[in-house]
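Hi P.,

Sorry for the delay on this. The queue was packed all week, but I finally got your sequence through. Input first:
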Amino acid sequence: MKKKLGLLYGGKSAEHKVSLQTALAVIKALDLEKFEIHPIYITTEGHWVKGPQLQGPVENVKALEYSQEDSRTASALAPALFQEGSTMDVIFPLLHGPNGEDGTVQGLLELLNLPYVGNGVLASAAGMDKVIMKNIFAQAGLGQVKYTAFIRSEWEQEKEKTYETVEAELGYPCFVKPANLGSSVGISKCTSRSELETAFKEAFQFDRKIIIEEGVTAREIEVGVMGNDSPECSVAGEIVPKVEFYDYKAKYEDGDTALIIPADVEAEQYEEIKKMAIKAFKALDCSGLVRADFFLTKDGRIFINEVNTMPGFTPFSMFPLLWKHTGVEYPQLIERLVELAVERHGEKQKIKYTF
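Then the structure:
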């Protein structure tokens, strides 16, 4: 029998458009002989709209942006979507950023006791918050570049002190980022005080907490990690931006970057990167998938930068390309992730809730 697969995409997030591109790519790759595809669109206002079952691939993202006439809030819609007799076999949350990749939707799916692709509540929340993530990595003994963080009220009350802290602890160049966002939204590279001040203002538009990281001259190496309790790594890939750094425009709009797969790294370096990636996966209690990003310096030092708990599946995305070069084609990759979701859900059903 076909699996009823609910694709959850869009979202109340600055990464809404990225999610639409991801959904479009996944729909085109799904085998309609194996899956019933049920689109569930979340508008930029946070309204949920269930579209009709798809009978074939769609051609563009416009076809996935359903009318809001019958939209309802998540709390009202959830029973209608998942009630007895219409329950999905698996939900695939193709959501990026806050209100989707951060554990909020995962919590809803946990309450509904539905299998879903990807990471659970804790891993999603910790992986979304770069400060929490880096603190956990530090506890796990993973090498990282120096970093510091501030909340908006700290900055508003003592702006000069925050700038001085960055200059004393990190120096220039440095990168300023919203703590809870991805896809390079709101990120700035700073080489001076004036650029730092502008970067703080930019980043605080997207989050109440920001992180500032030491800038290092290094290659950007990434690996895909897939699995549950016994995760495996893909080959390594390298990002070589044609612009100064790998920003949103380079990622999603013009593909202005080179992706080198497999990356030209020494065997020992690749083994260390895999070891660190799996250690990070387990430190966050991840499941399903992550993309782990690293810095590799000229003198051979390896730093973990971050993990992405729901990497994109767009034509420019690294995660599916890494697995393709590892021997897992895109349709098989999606099927494997669905299998992992069902496996993890089954494992959770063994938990005893009465005594």
